[in-house]
């Protein structure tokens, strides 16, 4: 059977370089674009625009036009094949679903875009491997922490695991040490309150902290 690592190959080089994918759930498309600008200014270039954000595909297209190859922009909370195709057409570099459904995973993979699907238990990880998705999003990773991610590496050494939930600048190194290929960061990086109040300076401040922690991890060579 083809391993997940073999299937992914160089497809994940951009995700590895980005290191941190900011999970963006904005109240409006304008807020989403302003938040993306703040994240990039702060040094976080991986952006997951979730489909809970209004006009998500339009936001992805606008962010790509604004930042080009300097940002790794994709779509999150993908729950239908139509969303997967729409996001890919808008220029999404990757697609993320919160769970792993065979039909949806196939539709996501059919776009040719890097595909990431959610799992938590060993059985769900095995399902995602069988469907040959590029990255398995361990969510909510906060339930088990880095120790749980490390435990999954035992039976699944070839799996590209991306913990999401509970990732902070303080524990970033622990996640990568446990075997993460990249991490997803939501409320700790892009707080709902900051989005609601248009406090983009706060988002930029948090991005600076995450980016500094990521640089330290990369300098140590502590990346899967």
Outline the fold blueprint.
Elements: H1 4-8, H2 13-18, E1 20-24, H3 29-42, E2 46-50, H4 56-67, E3 72-76, H5 81-90, E4 94-97, H6 102-110, E5 114-119, H7 122-130, E6 135-138, H8 145-153, E7 161-163, H9 172-177, E8 183-185, H10 192-196, H11 200-219
Parallel strand pairs: 1-2, 1-8, 2-3, 4-5, 5-6, 6-7
Helix pairs in contact: 3-4, 3-11, 4-5
Characterise the protein shown here.
- The chain has 224 residues and is an alpha/beta fold.
- Helices cover 47% and strands 16% of the residues.
- It has a 4-stranded parallel β-sheet with strand order 3-2-1-8.
- The chain starts with a helix and ends in a 5-residue tail after the last helix.
- The N terminus is likely disordered.
**Order of strands, widest sheet:** 3-2-1-8
- Specify the overall morphology: globular
- Outline the biggest β-sheet: 4 strands, parallel
Mean pLDDT across all amino acids: 94
Q: Please bin the fraction of helical residues.
A: 40-55%
What structural category characterises the helix and strand content?
A: alpha/beta
Offer a concise description of the structure.
This protein is of the alpha/beta class.
Q: Key features?
A:
224 residues, alpha/beta, 4-stranded parallel beta sheet, 8 strands, 47% helix, globular, disordered N terminus
